[in-house]
Amino acid sequence: MALLLSIETSTPVCSVALHDHGELVSSREIRTPQAAASQLTPLIDFLFRESGLDKTRLAGVAVSGGPGSYTGLRIGSSTAKGICYALDIPLIALDSLHVLASSSEPPVSHGLICPMIDARRMEVYTCLLTPTLEVIEATRPLVIDENSFQEVLRQSPVTFLGNGADKCEGVIQHVHATFLKGQHPRAARMGRLAFRSFESGTFEDVRLFEPAYLKEFVAKTKKA
Description:
Elements: E1 3-8, E2 14-20, E3 23-30, H1 36-51, E4 58-64, H2 70-87, E5 91-94, H3 96-102, E6 112-118, E7 123-129, E8 135-143, H4 150-155, E9 158-161, H5 163-166, E10 177-180, H6 191-200
Parallel strand pairs: 1-4, 4-5, 6-9, 9-10
Antiparallel strand pairs: 1-2, 2-3, 6-7, 7-8
Helix pairs in contact: 1-2
């Protein structure tokens, strides 16, 4: 058994899943904002109780490694690293945008995929991928305006998805642009990506790993 635990906390939706050889065993998610801090560990414990499996059978832990919510990524990676340390198993980090693209419902089968995670105001974290997740444009932060992606859209249909795309629909205008609403990265869809990394031995240094924040953290100030 190649049992992998997947943890996804890059957006306000917190989710976890167990996969065996890339096939889903069990999954749970919570859509309450800022739930990861208090609910991530209970969610993981519930997975093992529900499946009847023991944590000592884990072969590795996959975590959505950014970009995304600074706090969510920090909590997810810290939890994943703690489990890996305790069980002496490898850590796998996946690009959060690739996880988002693979989580689309319905799956995107033609053109290009543009996953977007909100980075505040009119900025997003984004990349361009084929339906098989081949990278066309690498992950980066991008400020969106009416000229964004116009050259790409002239050449190919593009499906935009994620909480960053939801706020950009009124700005990016083109006949080739399609927006999928209500999409978010899901741990339940991390299994095959994680198992591919597991088979190839693509692991992170548990001691040194940090999520790909892409931007410096800026704390919000409360209004008086």
